[in-house]
Design goal:
This protein has about 375 residues and is of the alpha+beta class. It contains three helices and 23 strands. The strands form six sheets. It has a six-stranded antiparallel barrel with strand order 3-12-15-14-13-16. The protein starts with a helix and ends with a strand.
Length: about 375
Protein backbone atom coordinates (compact mmCIF):
# COMPACT_ATOMS: atom_id res chain seq x y z
CA UNK A 1 0.00 0.00 0.00
CA UNK A 2 2.68 2.61 0.76
CA UNK A 3 4.25 2.09 -2.64
CA UNK A 4 1.05 3.21 -4.35
CA UNK A 5 1.36 6.64 -2.78
CA UNK A 6 4.70 7.11 -4.52
CA UNK A 7 3.04 6.76 -7.94
CA UNK A 8 0.21 9.23 -7.33
CA UNK A 9 2.28 12.39 -7.97
CA UNK A 10 3.56 10.89 -11.19
CA UNK A 11 0.02 10.08 -12.36
CA UNK A 12 -1.24 13.55 -11.51
CA UNK A 13 1.68 15.17 -13.35
CA UNK A 14 1.02 13.00 -16.40
CA UNK A 15 -2.64 13.94 -16.50
CA UNK A 16 -1.73 17.63 -16.24
CA UNK A 17 0.68 17.30 -19.14
CA UNK A 18 -1.94 15.57 -21.27
CA UNK A 19 -4.54 18.24 -20.50
CA UNK A 20 -2.04 21.01 -21.24
CA UNK A 21 -1.12 19.46 -24.57
CA UNK A 22 -4.79 19.08 -25.49
CA UNK A 23 -5.44 22.73 -24.64
CA UNK A 24 -2.50 23.83 -26.78
CA UNK A 25 -3.71 21.64 -29.65
CA UNK A 26 -7.23 23.10 -29.41
CA UNK A 27 -5.74 26.61 -29.38
CA UNK A 28 -3.67 25.83 -32.43
CA UNK A 29 -6.72 24.44 -34.24
CA UNK A 30 -8.92 27.49 -33.55
CA UNK A 31 -10.47 28.68 -36.83
CA UNK A 32 -9.20 31.87 -38.41
CA UNK A 33 -11.98 34.46 -38.46
CA UNK A 34 -12.64 36.43 -41.66
CA UNK A 35 -13.16 40.15 -41.00
CA UNK A 36 -14.21 43.15 -43.05
CA UNK A 37 -11.65 45.92 -43.12
CA UNK A 38 -11.57 49.62 -43.94
CA UNK A 39 -8.43 51.59 -44.71
CA UNK A 40 -7.76 54.72 -42.69
CA UNK A 41 -7.56 57.92 -44.76
CA UNK A 42 -6.60 60.93 -42.72
CA UNK A 43 -7.69 64.48 -43.59
CA UNK A 44 -9.73 63.22 -46.57
CA UNK A 45 -13.37 63.80 -47.44
CA UNK A 46 -15.60 61.81 -45.11
CA UNK A 47 -16.09 58.56 -46.97
CA UNK A 48 -18.03 55.51 -45.81
CA UNK A 49 -18.77 52.24 -47.56
CA UNK A 50 -22.11 50.52 -47.00
CA UNK A 51 -23.09 47.02 -48.06
CA UNK A 52 -26.71 46.14 -48.80
CA UNK A 53 -28.33 42.83 -49.65
CA UNK A 54 -30.38 42.88 -52.86
CA UNK A 55 -32.24 40.64 -55.28
CA UNK A 56 -31.60 40.20 -58.99
CA UNK A 57 -34.63 41.08 -61.11
CA UNK A 58 -35.38 41.47 -64.79
CA UNK A 59 -35.34 45.01 -66.10
CA UNK A 60 -38.87 44.43 -67.43
CA UNK A 61 -41.27 42.03 -65.73
CA UNK A 62 -44.83 41.80 -67.09
CA UNK A 63 -47.81 40.74 -65.06
CA UNK A 64 -49.95 39.19 -67.77
CA UNK A 65 -53.71 38.73 -67.64
CA UNK A 66 -56.64 38.31 -70.00
CA UNK A 67 -58.40 41.39 -71.34
CA UNK A 68 -61.75 39.61 -71.05
CA UNK A 69 -63.29 37.54 -68.24
CA UNK A 70 -63.84 33.81 -68.52
CA UNK A 71 -63.01 30.31 -67.35
CA UNK A 72 -59.39 29.23 -67.73
CA UNK A 73 -59.44 26.34 -70.19
CA UNK A 74 -55.74 25.49 -70.37
CA UNK A 75 -52.37 26.74 -69.17
CA UNK A 76 -49.53 25.85 -71.52
CA UNK A 77 -46.50 26.95 -69.48
CA UNK A 78 -45.03 26.20 -66.07
CA UNK A 79 -42.85 28.10 -63.61
CA UNK A 80 -39.32 28.63 -64.90
CA UNK A 81 -40.14 27.75 -68.52
CA UNK A 82 -38.59 29.77 -71.32
CA UNK A 83 -40.94 31.18 -73.95
CA UNK A 84 -40.54 33.09 -77.19
CA UNK A 85 -42.31 36.20 -78.37
CA UNK A 86 -45.89 35.39 -79.45
CA UNK A 87 -46.00 31.95 -77.79
CA UNK A 88 -49.40 31.05 -76.37
CA UNK A 89 -49.32 30.87 -72.59
CA UNK A 90 -52.94 30.14 -71.66
CA UNK A 91 -56.47 30.40 -73.05
CA UNK A 92 -60.05 30.77 -71.87
CA UNK A 93 -63.16 28.83 -72.82
CA UNK A 94 -64.19 30.76 -75.93
CA UNK A 95 -67.58 29.15 -76.65
CA UNK A 96 -69.62 32.24 -75.81
CA UNK A 97 -67.15 34.51 -77.58
CA UNK A 98 -67.40 32.39 -80.73
CA UNK A 99 -71.19 32.75 -80.64
CA UNK A 100 -70.97 36.49 -80.13
CA UNK A 101 -68.51 36.81 -83.00
CA UNK A 102 -70.78 34.74 -85.26
CA UNK A 103 -73.80 36.90 -84.34
CA UNK A 104 -71.89 40.11 -85.00
CA UNK A 105 -70.70 38.71 -88.32
CA UNK A 106 -74.26 37.88 -89.35
CA UNK A 107 -75.40 41.41 -88.48
CA UNK A 108 -72.60 42.82 -90.59
CA UNK A 109 -73.63 40.61 -93.54
CA UNK A 110 -77.22 41.82 -93.18
CA UNK A 111 -76.02 45.43 -93.14
CA UNK A 112 -74.00 44.77 -96.30
CA UNK A 113 -77.13 43.45 -98.02
CA UNK A 114 -79.17 46.46 -96.94
CA UNK A 115 -76.46 48.79 -98.18
CA UNK A 116 -76.26 47.05 -101.57
CA UNK A 117 -80.07 47.20 -101.93
CA UNK A 118 -80.22 50.90 -101.01
CA UNK A 119 -77.39 51.64 -103.42
CA UNK A 120 -79.15 49.81 -106.27
CA UNK A 121 -82.44 51.60 -105.50
CA UNK A 122 -80.76 54.98 -105.58
CA UNK A 123 -79.12 54.23 -108.92
CA UNK A 124 -82.39 53.03 -110.43
CA UNK A 125 -84.47 55.95 -109.21
CA UNK A 126 -81.79 58.45 -110.18
CA UNK A 127 -82.20 57.24 -113.75
CA UNK A 128 -85.99 57.60 -113.49
CA UNK A 129 -85.64 61.11 -112.06
CA UNK A 130 -83.46 62.12 -115.00
CA UNK A 131 -86.29 61.02 -117.32
CA UNK A 132 -88.85 63.00 -115.32
CA UNK A 133 -90.79 60.02 -113.98
CA UNK A 134 -90.25 60.91 -110.25
CA UNK A 135 -89.63 64.12 -108.42
CA UNK A 136 -86.56 65.28 -106.54
CA UNK A 137 -88.23 64.83 -103.13
CA UNK A 138 -88.70 61.11 -103.73
CA UNK A 139 -85.15 60.79 -105.00
CA UNK A 140 -83.83 62.44 -101.81
CA UNK A 141 -85.62 59.82 -99.72
CA UNK A 142 -83.65 57.07 -101.50
CA UNK A 143 -80.45 59.02 -100.91
CA UNK A 144 -81.25 59.21 -97.20
CA UNK A 145 -81.96 55.45 -97.16
CA UNK A 146 -78.55 54.81 -98.69
CA UNK A 147 -76.87 57.02 -96.10
CA UNK A 148 -78.64 55.19 -93.27
CA UNK A 149 -77.66 51.83 -94.74
CA UNK A 150 -74.05 53.00 -94.96
CA UNK A 151 -74.08 54.06 -91.29
CA UNK A 152 -75.61 50.75 -90.22
CA UNK A 153 -72.94 48.91 -92.19
CA UNK A 154 -70.17 50.91 -90.48
CA UNK A 155 -71.70 50.16 -87.06
CA UNK A 156 -72.15 46.47 -87.83
CA UNK A 157 -68.60 46.17 -89.17
CA UNK A 158 -67.19 47.82 -86.06
CA UNK A 159 -69.25 45.50 -83.86
CA UNK A 160 -68.04 42.46 -85.76
CA UNK A 161 -64.41 43.61 -85.44
CA UNK A 162 -64.85 44.21 -81.71
CA UNK A 163 -66.31 40.75 -81.18
CA UNK A 164 -63.48 39.24 -83.21
CA UNK A 165 -61.00 41.07 -80.98
CA UNK A 166 -62.82 39.79 -77.89
CA UNK A 167 -62.46 36.27 -79.24
CA UNK A 168 -58.74 36.83 -79.78
CA UNK A 169 -58.34 38.08 -76.22
CA UNK A 170 -59.24 34.61 -74.93
CA UNK A 171 -55.71 33.56 -75.91
CA UNK A 172 -52.88 34.92 -73.74
CA UNK A 173 -49.56 35.29 -75.59
CA UNK A 174 -46.06 36.34 -74.55
CA UNK A 175 -45.28 39.95 -75.53
CA UNK A 176 -41.56 39.17 -75.49
CA UNK A 177 -39.11 36.31 -75.09
CA UNK A 178 -38.32 35.53 -71.47
CA UNK A 179 -38.81 33.27 -68.47
CA UNK A 180 -42.01 32.49 -66.57
CA UNK A 181 -41.46 33.72 -63.01
CA UNK A 182 -44.95 33.25 -61.61
CA UNK A 183 -48.19 31.35 -62.22
CA UNK A 184 -51.21 32.76 -60.38
CA UNK A 185 -54.16 30.82 -61.84
CA UNK A 186 -55.01 27.18 -62.53
CA UNK A 187 -57.19 25.42 -65.08
CA UNK A 188 -60.89 25.70 -64.29
CA UNK A 189 -60.55 28.96 -62.40
CA UNK A 190 -62.86 31.81 -63.42
CA UNK A 191 -60.79 34.96 -63.81
CA UNK A 192 -61.81 38.57 -64.26
CA UNK A 193 -60.41 40.87 -66.89
CA UNK A 194 -57.02 42.24 -65.86
CA UNK A 195 -56.35 39.70 -63.09
CA UNK A 196 -52.72 38.55 -63.15
CA UNK A 197 -52.46 34.99 -64.44
CA UNK A 198 -48.79 34.67 -65.45
CA UNK A 199 -45.67 36.70 -64.67
CA UNK A 200 -43.02 37.00 -67.37
CA UNK A 201 -39.45 38.26 -66.91
CA UNK A 202 -38.27 39.65 -70.23
CA UNK A 203 -34.86 38.79 -71.62
CA UNK A 204 -32.35 41.60 -71.48
CA UNK A 205 -30.54 43.62 -68.84
CA UNK A 206 -30.79 42.69 -65.19
CA UNK A 207 -31.48 44.98 -62.24
CA UNK A 208 -30.55 44.53 -58.59
CA UNK A 209 -33.15 45.86 -56.16
CA UNK A 210 -32.37 46.71 -52.53
CA UNK A 211 -33.59 49.08 -49.83
CA UNK A 212 -31.80 51.82 -47.90
CA UNK A 213 -32.89 53.36 -44.57
CA UNK A 214 -34.18 56.89 -44.62
CA UNK A 215 -31.13 58.29 -42.79
CA UNK A 216 -28.92 57.10 -45.69
CA UNK A 217 -31.10 58.25 -48.57
CA UNK A 218 -28.80 61.20 -49.19
CA UNK A 219 -25.95 58.78 -49.99
CA UNK A 220 -27.77 57.46 -53.11
CA UNK A 221 -28.14 59.41 -56.35
CA UNK A 222 -29.32 58.61 -59.86
CA UNK A 223 -26.42 57.70 -62.12
CA UNK A 224 -24.20 56.73 -59.21
CA UNK A 225 -21.84 53.81 -59.95
CA UNK A 226 -21.75 50.98 -57.39
CA UNK A 227 -20.11 47.57 -57.11
CA UNK A 228 -22.38 44.51 -57.05
CA UNK A 229 -21.37 40.95 -56.13
CA UNK A 230 -23.38 37.89 -57.17
CA UNK A 231 -23.61 35.30 -54.40
CA UNK A 232 -24.81 32.68 -56.91
CA UNK A 233 -21.96 33.11 -59.41
CA UNK A 234 -19.22 34.53 -57.19
CA UNK A 235 -18.49 37.39 -59.59
CA UNK A 236 -18.44 41.17 -59.22
CA UNK A 237 -19.57 43.85 -61.65
CA UNK A 238 -20.22 47.57 -61.82
CA UNK A 239 -23.79 48.86 -61.93
CA UNK A 240 -25.50 52.23 -62.16
CA UNK A 241 -28.34 53.56 -60.01
CA UNK A 242 -31.37 53.95 -62.29
CA UNK A 243 -34.27 54.34 -59.86
CA UNK A 244 -34.77 55.66 -56.34
CA UNK A 245 -38.22 55.46 -54.79
CA UNK A 246 -39.92 58.82 -54.36
CA UNK A 247 -41.57 57.82 -51.08
CA UNK A 248 -40.67 55.51 -48.22
CA UNK A 249 -42.36 52.24 -47.41
CA UNK A 250 -45.13 53.12 -44.91
CA UNK A 251 -44.12 50.32 -42.53
CA UNK A 252 -40.34 49.98 -42.73
CA UNK A 253 -39.59 53.60 -43.73
CA UNK A 254 -37.04 52.38 -46.24
CA UNK A 255 -36.56 53.43 -49.85
CA UNK A 256 -36.35 50.99 -52.77
CA UNK A 257 -33.33 51.48 -55.03
CA UNK A 258 -32.61 49.79 -58.36
CA UNK A 259 -29.21 49.50 -60.01
CA UNK A 260 -28.75 48.25 -63.58
CA UNK A 261 -26.13 45.75 -64.65
CA UNK A 262 -24.59 45.61 -68.11
CA UNK A 263 -26.39 43.61 -70.79
CA UNK A 264 -23.87 40.76 -70.66
CA UNK A 265 -24.35 40.21 -66.91
CA UNK A 266 -27.09 37.60 -67.14
CA UNK A 267 -27.23 36.76 -63.44
CA UNK A 268 -29.85 34.23 -62.23
CA UNK A 269 -33.21 35.83 -61.57
CA UNK A 270 -34.18 35.93 -57.91
CA UNK A 271 -30.61 35.29 -56.71
CA UNK A 272 -29.03 37.34 -53.93
CA UNK A 273 -26.46 40.06 -54.50
CA UNK A 274 -24.42 42.40 -52.34
CA UNK A 275 -24.35 46.07 -53.28
CA UNK A 276 -21.35 48.11 -52.13
CA UNK A 277 -22.16 51.80 -51.99
CA UNK A 278 -19.59 54.46 -51.16
CA UNK A 279 -20.87 57.60 -49.47
CA UNK A 280 -18.88 60.83 -49.73
CA UNK A 281 -19.85 63.70 -47.43
CA UNK A 282 -18.75 67.23 -48.30
CA UNK A 283 -16.55 69.14 -45.94
CA UNK A 284 -19.42 71.52 -45.20
CA UNK A 285 -21.39 68.72 -43.54
CA UNK A 286 -18.36 66.92 -42.04
CA UNK A 287 -15.75 69.47 -40.87
CA UNK A 288 -12.15 68.31 -41.23
CA UNK A 289 -9.98 67.82 -38.15
CA UNK A 290 -6.24 67.42 -38.24
CA UNK A 291 -5.38 63.72 -38.17
CA UNK A 292 -9.04 62.64 -37.94
CA UNK A 293 -10.56 59.87 -40.04
CA UNK A 294 -14.11 58.69 -40.63
CA UNK A 295 -14.90 55.11 -39.57
CA UNK A 296 -18.14 53.10 -39.50
CA UNK A 297 -19.85 53.21 -36.13
CA UNK A 298 -19.49 49.42 -35.78
CA UNK A 299 -15.71 49.70 -35.97
CA UNK A 300 -15.45 51.56 -32.64
CA UNK A 301 -15.98 49.67 -29.39
CA UNK A 302 -15.61 50.47 -25.72
CA UNK A 303 -12.60 49.10 -23.83
CA UNK A 304 -13.69 50.02 -20.36
CA UNK A 305 -14.30 53.76 -20.55
CA UNK A 306 -12.10 54.33 -23.60
CA UNK A 307 -13.00 54.01 -27.27
CA UNK A 308 -10.91 51.50 -29.22
CA UNK A 309 -10.63 49.86 -32.60
CA UNK A 310 -9.03 46.65 -33.86
CA UNK A 311 -6.08 47.48 -36.10
CA UNK A 312 -4.69 44.76 -38.35
CA UNK A 313 -0.98 44.00 -38.38
CA UNK A 314 -0.50 42.95 -42.02
CA UNK A 315 2.75 41.09 -41.26
CA UNK A 316 1.36 38.78 -38.58
CA UNK A 317 -2.33 39.03 -39.62
CA UNK A 318 -3.21 39.66 -35.96
CA UNK A 319 -5.50 42.36 -34.57
CA UNK A 320 -4.32 44.85 -31.99
CA UNK A 321 -6.60 46.91 -29.78
CA UNK A 322 -5.83 50.59 -30.39
CA UNK A 323 -7.29 53.48 -28.41
CA UNK A 324 -8.89 56.31 -30.38
CA UNK A 325 -10.66 59.56 -29.59
CA UNK A 326 -14.10 60.25 -31.04
CA UNK A 327 -13.94 63.77 -32.46
CA UNK A 328 -17.39 64.04 -33.98
CA UNK A 329 -20.49 61.88 -34.44
CA UNK A 330 -21.84 61.97 -38.02
CA UNK A 331 -24.96 60.52 -39.59
CA UNK A 332 -23.16 57.50 -41.00
CA UNK A 333 -20.06 57.08 -38.87
CA UNK A 334 -17.65 58.48 -36.33
CA UNK A 335 -14.82 60.93 -36.93
CA UNK A 336 -11.92 59.67 -34.80
CA UNK A 337 -8.29 60.58 -34.16
CA UNK A 338 -5.36 58.45 -33.04
CA UNK A 339 -4.85 56.44 -36.23
CA UNK A 340 -2.36 56.68 -39.05
CA UNK A 341 -3.23 56.82 -42.73
CA UNK A 342 -3.01 53.43 -44.40
CA UNK A 343 -3.84 51.38 -41.33
CA UNK A 344 -6.55 48.74 -41.76
CA UNK A 345 -9.34 48.68 -39.18
CA UNK A 346 -11.92 45.95 -38.58
CA UNK A 347 -15.32 47.42 -39.52
CA UNK A 348 -17.72 44.67 -38.35
CA UNK A 349 -17.85 41.88 -35.79
CA UNK A 350 -15.58 43.62 -33.32
CA UNK A 351 -17.31 42.00 -30.34
CA UNK A 352 -16.15 38.54 -31.44
CA UNK A 353 -12.40 39.36 -31.51
CA UNK A 354 -9.71 39.06 -28.86
CA UNK A 355 -6.30 40.73 -28.61
CA UNK A 356 -3.67 39.29 -30.99
CA UNK A 357 -6.24 37.02 -32.63
CA UNK A 358 -5.25 35.74 -36.06
CA UNK A 359 -7.69 36.83 -38.78
CA UNK A 360 -7.99 36.88 -42.54
CA UNK A 361 -9.46 39.40 -44.95
CA UNK A 362 -13.10 38.82 -45.89
CA UNK A 363 -13.63 38.68 -49.64
CA UNK A 364 -16.97 38.58 -51.49
Amino acid sequence: MPSSYHFRPLVIAGVALVLASCSQQEARQAPVRAVQLVTVVANAPATTEFTYSGEVKAQTESMLGFRVPGKLKSRLVDLGQRVGKGDELANLDNTDYNLSAASAGAQRDAAVSQFDLAKADLARFTDLASQGFIGQAQLQRYQVSLNMAASQLTSASAGASAQKNQLGYTSLRAPSAGVITGVDADVGQVVSAGVVVIRLAHDGARDVQFVVPQQRLSTVALGQVVQVSSLALGVQASAKVVDVAASADPITRTYVVKVRLSADAQWPLGSSALVQLVSTQASTSAPQHAGASLLPSNAVWLDGAASSVWVLNPETMRVVATAVTVVQVLNDGLLVSGLQAGQEVVSAGTHALTPNQVVKRYTF
